[in-house]
Amino acid sequence: MIAITGASGQLGQATLKHLLTKTEPGNIVAIVRDAQKLESFSGTGIHIRVADYNDMASLKIALTGVEKLLQISTSSIGEQAAREEWNVVTAARLQGVKHIIYTSSVKPQENHHFLSARQSLKTENDIIASGMTYTFFRNSLYLETIPQFIGSGLYDGNIQFPAGDGVVSFVSRIDIAEALSIVMTEKSHENKAYEITGAAAFSFQDIATILANEKKLPATFTDVEEAAMKEQLAELQMSTAEIDWFMTLAGSVRANEFSHVDHTLEEILQRKPTGLIDFIQSI
Ligand SMILES: NC(=O)c1ccc[n+]([C@@H]2O[C@H](COP(=O)([O-])OP(=O)(O)OC[C@H]3O[C@@H](n4cnc5c(N)ncnc54)[C@H](OP(=O)(O)O)[C@@H]3O)[C@@H](O)[C@H]2O)c1
Q1: Of 41, 113, 143, 215, whose CB has the highest number of CB atoms within 10 Å?
Q2: 7 CA → ligand 1 middle, Å
């Protein structure tokens, strides 16, 4: 059987939809911590099992009989993320899972600015050390996160983000989901690390220019000071840990750590991936 953790999330649900077109529903196990979130899949014939990344016993039960696992990276941060990802890898190894497909971060490095990219590298290394076959989907930033970065800039054209002239090879989460469903149901992806990116990289100034062209907004980009950004985030009731995590992401964009462009996604999909202009037109 093929299982997906984090199946209730946006990437998980999109992957499940594609997977249902490629394999028998009885072959699919969706692992979630709240079964109600997959109510829309209840009539499809897939198996829905409940487990929490923090609960090893529940993970082991949920992974019974699973040969191939899509491990969707956790949305937690820091020590908790480390513990949760370790639990999933360990439970998979103990239950005899043969192949893990893991959603990592583009070009992860030990000295990466972005905290979650450093965690992704650690989990990749744990998976390799476990002896299981692996496929790493090293995803660049989702196009769908742009509204979170630019906030009201989407409507008033005034983008404030401390990214300097750093560029990002934004990639569509929906395209990633389709590619994951292909890799999960095909052979030839064993022990590969794929850099999953859009076909070009764009700065936040580029986003402003595209907004101006496509949405006829008086778009401007301000490379806002870090302290001012932190104040804005605190006003949104984010915790200090979340603000610090977000600032590591901004620092990473500024340092061009999400700039790598790769054509693997196009090769897997056998079509052009969704681009930034397509995305901006669609919102
Ligand atoms: N590349 C990017 O731009 C980008 C952006 C955002 C996130 N990410 C990463 O990619 C992952 C998938 O993205 P997404 O958009 O699908 O995120 P998402 O919608 O937030 O989904 C996260 C999934 O992880 C599950 N999860 C979190 N903590 C868990 C726990 N303790 N036990 C079991 N399940 C847990 C969530 O379950 P619930 O539904 O119960 O909460 C949800 O199913 C994220 O988790 C994050 O690591 C990447």
Answers
A1: 143
A2: 9
Q: Candidates 52, 71, 74, 75: which one to mutate for ligand 1, based on the most atoms within 8 Å of Cβ?
A: 75
Q: Does ligand 1 come within 6 angstroms of the Cβ of 154?
A: no
Domain range enclosing 46: 2-139+173-196+260-273
CA dist 174 and 18 (Å) reads: 10
Classify residue 27: in a domain, yes or no. Answer: yes
d(CA 273, CA 283): 17
Q: How many domains does the chain have?
A: 1
Check residue 158 and give its pLDDT: 86
* CA 168 to centroid of ligand 1, rounded, Å: 21
CATH at residue 16:
3.40.50.720
- In angstroms, the Cα distances linking 169 to 19, 49, 111, 141, 253 are 26, 35, 20, 7, 10
Tokens of 220: 């401007």
**Is position 220 within any domain?**
no
* pTM of the full structure: 0.97
Q: What is the mean pLDDT of each run of 10 residues along the chain (283 residues)?
A: 98 98 97 97 96 97 98 96 98 98 97 97 98 98 92 83 96 98 96 98 95 88 92 92 95 97 98 96 89
Counting atoms of ligand 1 from 1, which one is nearest the CA of 34?
Answer: 40
* CB of 79 shorter than 6 A to ligand 1: no
In this structure, is residue 23 part of a structural domain? yes
Q: Is residue 230, in this structure, part of any structural domain at all?
A: no
pLDDT attached to residue 129: 98
Q: Residue 230 C-alpha to ligand 1 middle, in angstroms?
A: 23
Residue that has been written with the tokens 């491990």 in this structure? 71
Cβ of 84 closer than 6 Å to ligand 1, yes or no, is yes
